[in-house]
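Data availability (excerpt). The following record was deposited with the supplementary files.
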Amino acid sequence: MRKLPEIMLSIEKIVVEQCNNSKYIRPFRLSYVQDGKSKLWDLMKSHDSVAIIIHHIERRSLLFVRQFRPAIYFNRVYAGGEQEVPPVGTAIGGDPRLGLTVELCAGIVDKEKPLAEIAAEEVQEECGFNVSASDLERVSTFRTGVGTTGSMQTIFYAKVTEAMRLSKGGGNPAEGEYIETVEVPISQLYDFILDESIPKPTGCAFGVSWFLKEKLRPSFVEVMRQNYLQIAVVSSGISLFAMLTAVGICSLRK
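Predicted structure:
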């Protein structure tokens, strides 16, 4: 992977703040009775999302995005205990690289638009490619954060070429996004998803696994060609055996 842009590492003055009136998450508690027993469960309301498996067909690679994730940074740096929340005003110090993740291109569903349109906008904004919503292939929808949010994420598949490139991408700075596009060759994808030194969400590993299974399978023509060659080889062997046997029988008769 390329050297990190300086802006990705220009992160400082990380301090714990009080979370009030968040636009993205709303914590609350549910009470319920299960099998006659009263229970409580703490959870959060958050946006659904879309994610896109971007296949650069000319470069035989998949494109991902790398960005700083404060949640990853905090959990890798802060050693105050699993459930302990540091007091407001606590400064958190550590290498900003510990907060960098590699993920599928993605975005939250915060617009009244079809999911495919939102996904196409994210591809252009984060990775710089002009993809039509109609050209996206819907892969699947599943639940994320099943213990806390239960939000839905819908994954799409997109094929891109250099002719479709409009910009270098990088996210929307007006929204505070600083994103780097990361390219992983197809030949290295399996090692990539198993590399624990690169923080990545489960959806990323799912997307890569789906791609390897569904898009790298041999085509029907290739399967038939391979089977034909195998049959031809076997048939040739049988024919040769039959010919040699016939020659042997003829020799015995003489």
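Summary of structural features: The chain has a mean pLDDT of 85.
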